[in-house]
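User: Sequence recovery, please. Input:
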């Protein structure tokens, strides 16, 4: 199943899409495995622990959203790039809420998919981290950016790649308001895209960080602008 390089599992029941995606990923130097349904995807993820999953939403049997949900319920957080139909905005948002790290709407450029995969892997720590990566501390919240670990009150948080990156960005830039478009560019590396991606990730971070997510104290909304991070100390 696997070829040479970092391991990517492609899950799509459309053989034309799968063949194109796999070909481009292999040309980019990745190991690539391919399955066509959700049950097989979960089995391969358990057996082989790929570095990243490219996951179509529309799958026979166990659909992509349920695969994402089950992968996110596991201790080892495998990065996920979702593939969605162009008009499936509600499913796309739900996928992000379930913990997908990125998404592309069909039809998409295979070259762009390769760039997104590389970006997510880089942010997930698949590339070596600097030897002296800084610790970010805000009261009882600690981020070890070298090991990509987050702890709140001594308890390790389960954060996706993008959630970790967004929180680290906020903590490095406290007390400053950022527009959603600016966060999309500086955290995701996109100069265009669906800004609801940022909204969903902020909501998920609040659920994990705030005592009362409805009245957040750390990640606050700046009406008409976007969001600001307020240090607890």
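Assistant: Recovered sequence (233 residues):
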């Amino acid at each position: 199943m696997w070829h040479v390089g970092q391991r990517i599992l492609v899950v799509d029941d459309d053989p034309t899409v799968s063949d194109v995606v796999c070909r481009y990923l292999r040309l980019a130097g990745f190991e690539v495995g391919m399955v066509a349904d959700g049950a097989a995807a979960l089995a391969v993820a358990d057996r082989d622990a790929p570095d990243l999953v490219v996951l179509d939403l529309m799958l026979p049997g166990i659909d992509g959203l349920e695969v994402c949900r089950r992968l996110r319920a596991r201790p080892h957080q495998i990065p996920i790039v979702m593939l969605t139909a162009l008009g499936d905005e509600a499913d796309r948002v739900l996928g992000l809420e379930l913990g997908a790290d990125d998404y592309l709407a069909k039809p998409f450029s295979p070259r762009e998919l390769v760039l997104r995969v590389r970006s997510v892997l880089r942010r997930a720590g698949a590339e070596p981290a600097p030897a002296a990566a800084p610790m970010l501390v805000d009261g009882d919240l600690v981020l070890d950016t070298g090991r990509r670990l987050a702890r709140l009150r001594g308890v390790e948080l389960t954060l996706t790649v993008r959630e970790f990156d967004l929180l680290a960005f906020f903590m490095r830039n406290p007390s400053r308001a950022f527009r959603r478009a600016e966060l999309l560019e500086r955290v995701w590396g996109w100069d265009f895209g669906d800004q609801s991606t940022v909204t969903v990730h902020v909501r998920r971070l609040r659920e994990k960080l705030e005592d009362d997510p409805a009245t957040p104290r750390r990640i606050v909304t700046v009406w008409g602008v976007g969001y600001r991070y307020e240090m607890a100390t």
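The domain at 135-229 is CATH 1.10.10.10 (Arc Repressor Mutant, subunit A).
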